[in-house]
Amino acid sequence: MAAPSFDPLVDLDGLWTPELAERYLPIPGMPPVKYECLDGKLIMSPREGTANMFAVWTLGKYLEPTAAKSGNRFYLTVNVLLDVKKWIEPDFVVLKQSGQGRVWIPHEDVLLAGECVSPSSKENDRVNKPARCAEVGIPYFMRVEVNYSDGRVNVELLRLQDGKYRPQARGSEVEIFETELPFPLSFDPAELLEP
């Protein structure tokens, strides 16, 4: 009789931790995906389309130098540890200091978490992730929404106040984005649209 085979997606359901993730992820044979975890349950979502990736890359060109002037560091896609069985992988973050080569970033080190809303994970990007970030006290959350076919883009910066995110600044394809907090930042969101 053959021994039962081990399937990490089934056998570790509800048990995922960073240690198990380092041991078993990525899953061999699976297409590239974003791995996140909520209460030990693995959440997998497809990588972003080119419109979102272009927007994040272009936005990073604005965020990186101005964040650095304030002593912070901009990163694309890192693992933010919310607690031992809960982590997210924002599309971009601004850390309060250098990541120093770490794979798992404690939420206390995050100044700003950002998401480029995807059609496949709209509720997660618009509702769940900001709520999780607010729960652990991440001071700022930035949301970018790109509609490539309509030529529209919206950028919204939210600031944590009294345990909830409140609007700090907004911009769109027809309105410049400007804010002084958490560091001075001004750009034309229309430049985030993929040519």
From TrEMBL:
One of its GO terms (molecular function) is endonuclease activity. Keywords: Endonuclease, Hydrolase, Nuclease. This is Endonuclease, Uma2 family (Restriction endonuclease fold). It holds the Pfam family Uma2. InterPro entries: Nuclease_put_TT1808, Restrct_endonuc-II-like, Uma2. SUPFAM superfamilies: Restriction endonuclease-like. Residues 22-184 form the Putative restriction endonuclease domain. The keyword Isomerase does not apply. CDD domains: DUF820-like. The keyword Hydrolase applies.
